[in-house]
Design goal:
Layout lengths: L4 H13 L10 E13 L6 E6 L8 E4 L3 E8 L8 E4 L25 E7 L4 E7 L10 E7 L12 E10 L4 H9 L11 E4 L33 E4 L4 E8 L5 E6 L4 E6 L2 E8 L1 E4 L4 E7 L8 E8 L8 E7 L21 H9 L16 E12 L2 E6 L2 E3 L6 H7 L32 E3 L2 E4 L4 E7 L12 E5 L4 E8 L6 H5 L8 E2 L1 E4 L3 E8 L4 E7 L2 H5 L3 E6 L15 H8 L5
Parallel strand pairs: 1-4, 3-8, 9-12, 11-19, 20-25, 22-23, 24-32
Antiparallel strand pairs: 1-2, 4-6, 5-7, 7-8, 9-10, 12-17, 13-16, 13-18, 14-15, 14-17, 18-19, 20-21, 25-30, 26-29, 26-31, 27-28, 27-30, 31-32
């Protein structure tokens, strides 16, 4: 059956104003999910995880560009709310579906149901995860893959596809972790016990013990399928697309495949100028596509190694097997697994990161910015505890979601007009020493952005409370992609030398970007998507400790917001008394 006449007319119009996606009418894809606590053994140690429809990780969503996703989500957790953030989906026209508790919606209460509806407008490798408390660290995540529209093609060729969702795993519950992070005196949660590949890992043993002194060999046949080693079946002399995404709570990662090169072709749902590497760094929140050619000895299988970067690794690497068929999947590779670069080899990390450039045809950034916001990342003390702060304010979220309070114009407790957040920091701040005054205060950290404004953000890293410590921070922006203009060492000055470091010719579009220790990163985006959007460190404990800001963008232009997402705090009483969203 052909397209309706109106759809044909719309397609003809779209051909002149955008990439047409009209070979086939877009579809509505419906999912019905129940979120609950379940017993699971991600690394062969049984614990309680947050699952979806009784499984971990959650179901993979697969759609095509232009499709509308409907997820009817029931919260079957007994004592806590829940939301789902669709990481990398810009939510154009649907900011209420972004899934950020206290920002875009109320948390969904136990036994309540909320339906997310949104359009996926670009192809790419994405994922979803919990965005309430630290539920991502409890296993609430899954993959979201968006294929090109029917009749269109990717700008690269491949014969098959493999999907790897990477994460880390703590044996301690998130509730205990949150108490530790909020305790006075402060208690650090430590490093994760395991790294997981597609939700599977092995604790206290190694599949490659023969190559790892002191390690215990894992059983040849997995007793529990929930933690069985991941096997990636391939045929010789083919090219495969590996979709990679990191939803880790803490760890930065590096992935390598024995004897194989990887060609990077996509980052965060945007095509990049292809380049080949031996291994790839993934920070929490990153997603990539790489091409792998199976051109090695077909009589062997090969190790896939995932190791920790940016922190002294106390978590052993995760291993999977690249299984050249018809070899048996149980045939272990004879060669030792690739070795992850040294955790503090930042030169290696920077060399990889700096090679990421936009593919030809990517829209360029505006030549100039209307506004520059500079965000100093520091670790501080507050009331006997430890927090992360931005320009000396540690983010605290309200009981009433900003999207609702700002749209309704509520003035109670300053909800509609939070105090202006500082847009810069003192150039006299000593970035390489612990803060002279370690104390900080709580703040809403809300920045109001004019509709259509071009905004530059400079992320500035600094020394933590301990001497000679500056951590890696991957920052994720909701509701937008941004151009990564450049990186620098030391303090950002904005002078000619800093400007000379910027890439204005082919900066990549991303939604997540890293700031390296004692360095800065500069990004640019256009505030063209009305809503209220989080911008935060994607490391779960850092966000929990206040490392983030909020961009409130032309909320008066937001269309009708579903009331069921705003029935909490001050918006609930306003809506009951006749308010309209």
């Amino acid at each position: 059956m052909g397209l309706p006449l109106l759809a044909v007319a719309c397609c003809a119009l779209l051909a002149f104003v955008a990439r047409p996606h009209c070979a086939e009418a877009a579809k509505a894809r419906h999912f019905k999910w129940e979120i609950s606590n379940i017993f699971w053994s991600p690394d062969c140690e049984e614990k309680v995880v947050i699952g979806i429809n009784g499984q971990f990780p959650g179901p993979t969503i697969r759609a095509r560009v232009g499709d509308t996703i409907h997820v009817e989500l029931k919260n079957a957790l007994h004592t806590e709310g829940v939301v789902i953030h669709w990481h990398g989906i810009r939510q154009i026209g649907t900011p209420w579906a972004d899934g950020t508790a206290a920002i875009s919606q109320c948390a969904i209460n136990p036994e309540e149901t909320f339906t997310y509806r949104f359009v996926v407008d670009r192809p790419g490798t994405y994922f979803y995860h919990g965005h309430y408390g630290m539920q991502r660290a409890a296993g609430l995540y899954g993959s979201l893959i968006v294929d090109v529209a029917e009749g269109e093609e990717e700008p690269f060729k491949y014969d098959g596809e493999l999907n790897l969702l990477l994460s880390d795993w703590y044996h301690e519950s998130i509730h205990t972790q949150m108490v530790m992070l909020s305790s006075k005196p402060f208690r650090w949660i430590g490093e994760p016990q395991s790294l997981l590949i597609n939700g599977r890992g092995q604790f206290n043993c190694s599949m490659a013990a023969a190559h790892t002194p002191g390690a215990t060999q894992c059983p040849a046949a997995a007793v529990n399928r929930q933690c069985a080693p991941v096997v990636l079946p391939v045929l010789p002399n083919k090219t495969y697309r590996l979709r990679l995404a990191s939803t880790t709570s803490l760890a930065s990662l590096n992935l390598a495949i024995g004897n194989h090169k990887l060609t990077v072709v996509e980052a965060d749902g945007n095509y990049v100028d292809p380049f080949a590497v031996d291994d790839i760094d993934l920070y929490s929140g990153d997603s990539y596509s790489v091409l792998l050619t199976t051109d090695q000895d077909p009589s062997s299988n090969y190790w896939v190694t995932v190791g920790v970067r940016g922190r002294l690794p106390k978590t052993p690497p995760a291993l999977a097997v690249l299984n050249y068929r018809p070899n048996a999947a149980s045939k272990l590779p004879s060669l030792a697994p690739p070795v992850t670069p040294a955790w503090d080899d930042y030169a290696h990390s920077k060399a990889f990161t700096y090679r990421i450039r936009a593919r030809a045809g990517t829209p360029p950034p505006p030549a100039t910015a209307d506004r520059r916001i500079e965000l100093l990342n520091t670790q501080n003390k507050m009331d006997g505890g430890i927090k992360w702060s931005i320009n000396n304010a540690s983010m605290v979220l309200p009981a009433t979601p900003y999207l609702g309070s700002l749209k309704l114009g509520l003035n109670k407790s300053g909800l509609a007009a939070p105090a202006p957040a500082p847009e810069t920091f003192s150039r006299g701040y000593d970035l390489r020493s612990p803060p002279a005054n370690p104390n900080t205060t709580a703040g809403p950290n809300v920045y109001a952005l004019a509709h259509g404004a071009t905004v530059d953000v400079v992320l500035q890293n600094a020394n933590a409370l301990a001497a000679n410590v500056s951590e890696v921070h991957p920052w994720h922006l909701h509701g937008h992609d941004f151009w990564v203009l450049g990186y620098g060492e030391g303090g950002y000055r904005g002078d000619a030398a800093d400007e000379a470091r910027l890439n204005r010719r082919d900066p990549p579009l991303r939604n997540t970007v890293v700031i390296f220790p004692y360095g800065w990163t500069k990004i640019r985006f256009v505030a063209d998507n009305p809503g209220v959007w989080a911008f935060h460190c994607h490391i779960e404990p850092h966000l929990h400790m206040g490392m983030g800001v909020v961009f409130a963008e032309a909320v008066d232009r937001v269309g009708e917001v579903p009331k069921e997402g705003m029935m909490c705090g001050a918006t609930a009483s306003a809506l009951v008394n006749g308010g309209h969203l």
